[in-house]
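Consider this pair:
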Amino acid sequence: MPFKMSWVMVFAPLTLFGQPIMGPPQYREAANYVKDINQDGYKDSVRYFYDGGSGFGGTNMYLTHGKTHQTYEFSTFNTKWPILTSIAIHPDLYTKENEPFFDEVEKNLFPAIQVDKPELCLQWILDGFKSKMVNGNDSGLLEYAFGFQPRWKKGDIYLPKSYFVFLDTKDFGSTLQKTSIGDLPEWLDENTKGWLICYAPNIHGQKVEKVAVDNDLELYKAHKSVILKKQDGYMWVFVDEYLLTGGADKWGRVKNTTFHEGLIFVETEGEMAERYLFVVDHIKGICARFKYEYLHSGSDQWIQNGKLMLGDHQTPAMIDKIKTEIESLYKEIKL
């Protein structure tokens, strides 16, 4: 029997507001059944079961097309405390006749909530994956940078629960291609369609804290993200998706964040106390990471009591140099 496997992409962890941090995808009882899913006169078969341990887990689903006898695999298997899971759809299933198979997968594998488009925090990550990644120069302070689209949303900060979204745009294919940790199937390209499951509680953790104010702007720190708020709206300015930021490991967190001369600085910390510092220009839409060796030759208190603390390095000339490097990197990203 021909066997065709959908591609499953595992992303790093992240965290959401007022809700417990999510562990591996939820356990499901194993099941097998046969029915004509797409009403073409042929009986299709479905088998799914949970597999996992203390740090990994997920549900594997095998769907056999009754007419073609081809079997497709879909899986939510992921690490503990995942941010995202991506599930690609084999192009053989891109037909109107086969759309009922999509409903069957969604019903058995995904969270109860479906959205029409990614929420702001997920869109920030997708923007980063689509962006050109630009390296800083050898004598500079910044190691690399990527862009994002500044997106203000009106109203109070909204913190979504876990959800899934179907993507048939280049957001999905390009994201898989840039974040693969293994060999990609030959049929995968920028036009590949699929689902993203966003475990949003793992982006924001169990609380959000206002940590800095700059005129009419307020800065909020969550578990692995930073939110900027003004009187009539808010936007995400940082999410520590380590496959994108190269920051703290998947068990890391945002340690602190603050404003300084129109820029936003974010310090992250990993499980083994490794630390990284990022600078964000929320107007241009650019995030850059400082060179590790530069920071670790200076102060151990990068952000403290709402202030940037870079020790002897922190001079007006250094801040001007950061702004100059950001401008240069931004121009490269936009080329």
In short: Residues 316-334 form the longest helix (19 residues). The chain has two domains: 3-117+163-198, 132-158+205-334. Residues 1-24 have pLDDT under 50 and may be disordered.
